C-alpha cells in the first residue's frame, strides 16, 4: 500500500480525537509535558446529548457477562475480541450496541468493508451514538467505499486529519485534482499546529497524487521535503526511497541536512552511511561532515569510534576545535574510560581558561571525580570551578555536588552547612526535604546524633511516603532511633457517599469495553456533574471518572482539584477518593498479573505509568517514546523478541502490548540489578549502561547518597518520584504493613552485560 498504508497510521488516528476543555500538559510532581493531550473519543456529543435518557435499562445492558470480550476490548486485543464476539449467539450479535462494537473491532483490525456494512443504518437504531456511528462509517468508507460519501463527509471539516481522509477517499475514487486541492488546504491548516508528523503524512499523500497526475516537479518537491525534514519518520524514509525510484537525488547540502535530522530523531546509525558517502565525494565542507559523523557515532553509543572521530577533529583548525576536544573526552567517559577523560578535561580547562568549553570541562572533571568516589579530589576542583566561574551555568549544581563530595570525604560539617543553605533556598517542598534528609546524614556523620534524629524525624513527618521520608525512616532505623508514624492517621470524619451515575452514552460505552471513548463523552458533562454536588465537585468528578478502566482524565482532574494537604495524612473513608484520584490503577487485573509474572513489586508498574505518561496511552515523547509506559520502539522490539511476541510498531500504544512489554522490561532490569528498585528505576529512565557507569565498588553508595549523586537532574528526580509513587500505591493496597522500607545498601558491584538495552 506504500504511502497510502502509512496514512492510516498517522492523521487517521487523530480524526477520532477530541481536545479536552481546559486541558494542560503538566502532571502532578512534574510529570511529562510531552504527553498527548487529546481524549480518545471519536466525536463527543454535546452536553445535551451526553445526558440523554434511554427508556429501558435493558437497552444499556451488555448482551452477555462481559468478562472476556469486554476485557479484550479494553486492552485492545482486537483479534481475541473479534473471535469472542463472533462466537456469541446470533440474538446477541444483532443487538445494536454489539453491532456497533463489532464494527469498531473491524475498523481496528483493518477490515473497513465489514465496518461499513455493520455501521450502515445503525445510527437510527442506536441514537445515543448516532454522531459517532456516522463518523466511523465515513472513516471506513474512506478506505473501502463508497468514496464519494466519505469525501463529502470529511471535506466539510477544517481539521487536517479529516481533510486527509477526504483526500484519500477522492484519490481512491479517481478524482486526483480535487484530492490534491484538499491536501493543499490540509497542509495550510496543519501549519498552525507545527507538528512535523502531520506535515509528513499530508505531503506523502500529495506527492503520491501529484506523481499519478504526471506533475513530477510538485511530487519531487514534497519528496525532497520528506527525505530531509521528515527523516526518521516512516513517511520520510518512504519519501527518500521514492526519490530513488524516480531517479531524483538530494543535493549534497540536503543529504547532510537529512543525516543531521536522522541523528536528532534518534536514528544515528542510519545517518552514518550517508555521511561516509559525503566524505568520499567531497561535495560539502569536510569539517561539517566530520563533525556530523562524530556526533552520529556518539548518539549511536559507538563510543570508541566517537572518541576517535572527535580526536581527529580536535587536531584540525576551525571554530569547533575546542568543542571536539571536550567531546572526545565525553565519549571516553561514556565508554568506560572516565579516568582518562578527567585528565583530558583538566588539560583543556587549563589551556583555554574562560572558554565555555573549558567551563564545561572543569565541571565535568569534578563531577566524574565525584562519581568515581575520588571525593578528596572532587571537592577542591568544585572550589576552583566556583572561583573561576562565579556566575557559571553549573554554579548551583557545583555547590550541591561539592557538598556531597565533602559529605563522603570526611568533612561532614562543611557539607551540613551547604546542604542546610540549599534546603532553605529550594523552591519546591519535595526538593527541600531531600536536601534536609542529606543534611541530617551530614549531622550524623559529624557526631551530632540528636540533631540528625531531629532532622530525619521532621522530614519523615513533613512529607510522608515521599522518597525523602522513606530515606529518613531508614536512617532513623539504622541509628536505633524511634520511628514516627509512617503517615499520620486521618481525622475521623463520617463518609457520605455520592449518588453518582454516568450519562447514558458513557455508560453504554463502558458496558461494551470502550472506556477510553466513554472518557471523552464525560468531558462535556463535567460542569453539570460538578454542579449537582456543590462543595464536593472534585470528589464527584473523580468518582465519575473512577467508573472507567481508563485513568487519563481522572488523574488530570485530581492534579487540578486535589491539593497537597490530602497527601499529608492517611486517607479515611471520607477522603480516600482523593488518593484514588491522584493514584489511579487502570487495567488493575492485567497489571497485577504481569507484575507477578515478571517478579515486579506490586504497584511499581502503576508508579512508572504515573510518572512516564500520566496514564495517557496516546502519549508520544519528543524522542518517540510511546504509550502508557513510554517505551522506545527499539527497546520494545528487543523485549518483544525475548518474550516471543511479534512486534508491530503501530500497536505499541495498545494497553495490552505496552503493558506486557514494559512490565517485562522493568522485570528484566530488576533481575540485572539484583532486585534493587533504586537501580532498576534509574535504569528505566537513563538506561542500564548509564547506570553501570555510576556504580563502582568502594564508593560511598547508600541509597540516598547514590540517588543524590545521579548526574542527570531528570533521572535523579525521576527515581525519587517513582519510589514515592510506589510507597503510596503500597499504602493504598495494604496500609503501613504493605510499604516496603527503603533498603540503604546499593549493590554497586553489579556487572551490566554489554548487550544490556
UniProtKB/TrEMBL annotation:
Question: InterPro entries attached here?
Answer: Lysozyme-like_dom_sf, TPR-like_helical_dom_sf, TPR_rpt, Transglycosylase_SLT_dom_1
Q: Which domain of life is it from?
A: Bacteria
Q: Name one Pfam family in it.
A: TPR_16
The record's annotation in CDD domains points to: Slt70-like (cd13401)
Residues annotated as domain Transglycosylase SLT: 592-696
Ranges of Low complexity composition bias in the record: 22-39
- UniProt-annotated stretches for the region Disordered: 20-39
Q: Which family does it belong to?
A: Belongs to the transglycosylase Slt family.
Protein name (Swiss-Prot/TrEMBL): Transglycosylase SLT domain-containing protein
